[in-house]
Amino acid sequence: MSNTIDYYNKNADAFAKETQSLDFSVTQEKFLSYLKEGDLILDFGCGAGRDTKYFLDHGYRVEAMDGSEALCKIASRYTGIEVKHKYFEELDEVNKYNGIWACSSILHLPYDALVEVLKKMQKALKPSGIIYTSFKYGDFAGERHGRYFMNFTQASFASLLSQVGGLTIVEEWITGDVRHDREEERWLNVLLRRSQL
After folding, report:
1. pLDDT tens track for 100-139
2. DSSP 89
3. Strand partners, 105
């Protein structure tokens, strides 16, 4: 994970330039359709703050965190809220969030760590709370261009989820990459709901 964090710290400005202005509204609106205005969202691995800003601008309360100190500074400036410098494993809230948005973020965790972090996310949600998350589609796991990636298919993600417990898939869909030069890359998008207590 430290190599991945180093990558984002070193490339924070370029990453912000590449991602902040991307139109991700179709997916953002799909997530928000399960929430109501004023609900509390955790942007979990917020990067340069694109989605945090979108949710704030649409009337939601947002807490944001990222493991890259450099990206936290950029995202804080961009969104106008304090973005916390925290690692995924440090999440320790209970029954707090209506929604957790983990867009292209927890895919940097190796399998066993991902199981534990999803358990923490499940605990941090209110009953019936919603998680959005996304992974590159496929069966690759390992370092690529300085960052660690854990890819999934529908079958391998279902297997992962069976080890987490307390979360059910509400929607699952595959998209191309929104970056204009990366349309060929495929992504697995998943909406999960926390089971009622």
Report:
1. 999 999 999 999 999 999 999 999 999 999 999 999 999 9
2. G
3. none
Which residue intervals of the chain are DSSP H helices? 2-10, 12-19, 25-32, 50-57, 69-79, 111-124, 154-164
Express each pLDDT in 18-52 by its tens digit: 999 999 999 999 999 999 999 999 999 999 999 99
58 vs 123: CA distance, rounded Å: 26
Alpha-carbon span 103 to 30, nearest angstrom: 13
- Dist. CA 6–CA 180, nearest whole Å: 25
Distance CA 24, CA 62 (A): 17
Residue 87 CA to its chain's centroid (Å): 12
pTM of this prediction exceeds 0.85: yes
CA 109 to chain centre: 12
Q: Which long-range contacts (CB under 8 A, 24 or more apart) does 56-60 make?
A: 56/80, 56/81, 58/32, 60/32, 60/35
Dist CA 130 CA 101 (whole Å)? 8
Token pair 């320790």 is found at 92
In whole angstroms, what is the distance from residue 30 CA to residue 90 CA?
28
116 is written with which tokens?
A: 């534990």
